[in-house]
Amino acid sequence: MDVLKAAGEPTRLRLLALLDAGDLTVTDLTEILGQSQPRISRHLKLLGEAELIERYQEGAWAYFRLKQDGKAAMLVRALLKHVSENDPTVLRDGERLSAVKRQRAERAQAYFSRNAAEWDELRRLHAADEEVDAAVIRLLGSQPIDSLLDLGTGTGRILELLAGLYRRAIGVDASRDMLSVARANLDKSRITKATVRHADILNLPFEGQDFDLVTIHQVLHFFDQPEIAIAEAARMLRPGGRLVVIDLAPHTLEYLRDEHAHVRLGFSHQAMSDWLRKAGLDVEQVVDLHPGQQSGQGLTVTVWLARDPRRLMASQLSEGAEPTFAGRV
């Protein structure tokens, strides 16, 4: 009854409908609804107490989002299905939401444009993004993903690529500018089941064992001790969960250290496999994607797929068999 009371008030119902479309700040919601910030904040507080929405801090800004799991969330989603899309208030809210998202996209595009030349230069050095994407899809197969965690999400490319497979996803990044780009890209692709958060991937703000897929895409070469990030990623996995690492193979392009802040010049199969095993994972597959150019300046991209073996162990032990792990290299 408390849930229905919280959700049934007209302004709060409008808030829930807006937050169903993605992450928004109090400022966004104030602008869309045309109400005072204290009033909006009060409604958000009541919705939070009813466990209908979740709040997370990103620097000085607080973002709000419709809660993804639980009976209350299911009830709200069922309630929102009965909200008429032709209602004048709903239509007006939708128009103002679109304006807020356009402003967000313009800010993100301005940042992207300032850095586009640098990113284009790096892309020309290694295998095409489409080739890397295809390799990741082949490795993962068509198995549905309940929950995805993308570490160092950047522009949100992985969140977009795998949107057809996961039920919910979180992308984290240390750069607030990149998070603005990711949010704009998710808005553009109409992906509402993914959210992005500001966080340190070496010290994640999650309990752990909550994701059945974790991805680390072109991030580890920025770290002096990549094995710490791998261990933290492994901590996030449920039993039987998978980790995909996409990064550069060993190379000799020293200028990437000074001009692009690369700390590590790629990773060998052996080094990465050692770190994955030390984190308690089994390496299942490794794929090298070579650059198209033959100038000697190209970079090979490697994709590693590893798995948490705990579910396999439990299955084998319950059958009275000695545990053996397929896929070790």
Outline of this structure?
InterPro entries: ArsR-like_HTH, HTH_ArsR_DNA-bd_dom, Methyltransf_11, Methyltransf_Superfamily, SAM-dependent_MTases_sf, WH-like_DNA-bd_sf, WH_DNA-bd_sf. Residues 1-87 form the HTH arsR-type domain. Helix content is 46%, strand content 21%.
Order of helices and strands: HHEHHEEHHHEHEHEEHEHHEEH
Task: Tally the beta strands.
Answer: 10
Total helical elements:
13
Largest sheet: 7 strands, mixed
- The secondary-structure class comes to alpha/beta
The end-to-end span amounts to 55 Å
Tertiary shape: globular
CATH class of the largest domain: Alpha Beta
Briefly note the CATH topology name of the largest domain: Rossmann fold
Mean pLDDT: 85
How are the strands ordered across the major sheet? 6-5-4-7-8-10-9
In words, what does this structure look like?
The protein is an alpha/beta fold. The chain has helices spanning 2-8, 10-19, 26-33, 37-49, 71-80, 88-125, 129-140, 157-161, 176-188, 226-236, 255-260, 269-278, 310-318; strands at 24-25, 53-58, 61-66, 145-151, 166-173, 194-198, 211-217, 237-248, 282-289, 301-307. The protein folds into two domains: 2-99, Orthogonal Bundle (Arc Repressor Mutant, subunit A); 126-318, 3-Layer(aba) Sandwich (Rossmann fold). It is 46% helix and 21% strand. Helix 9 (176-188) links the parallel strand 5 and strand 6. Residues 317-329 have low confidence and may be disordered.
